[in-house]
Amino acid sequence: MLYFLSRNISYFVLYQNMFVLCAKSLSILKNCRYFKMTDYSVARKNMVECQLHPCGVNDERVLTAYKNTPRERFVSQMQRSIAYADNELPLGHERFLISPMVHARMIHATKVKPDDVVLDIGGATGYSAAVLSQLATTVVAVENQADFLEQAKTTLIDMDLLNILHVDNALNDGDAKHGPYDVIIINGAAEVIPEALLDQLNIGGRLCYIERRISAKSYGQVVLLTKRADNQCDKRVLFETNGHVLSGFAAEESFSF
Question: What DSSP line would sit under the chain, residue for residue?
Answer without folding.
Answer: -HHHHHHHHHHHHHHHHHHHHHHHHHHHHHHSTTTS----HHHHHHHIIIIIGGGT---HHHHHHHHTS-GGGGS-GGGGGGTTSSS-EEEETTEEEPPHHHHHHHHHHHT--TT-EEEEES-TTTHHHHHHHTTSSEEEEEE--HHHHHHHHHHHHHTT--SEEEEES-GGG--GGG--EEEEEEEEEES---HHHHTTEEEEEEEEEEE--TT--S-EEEEEEEE-TTS-EEEEEEEEE--PBPTT-SPPP----
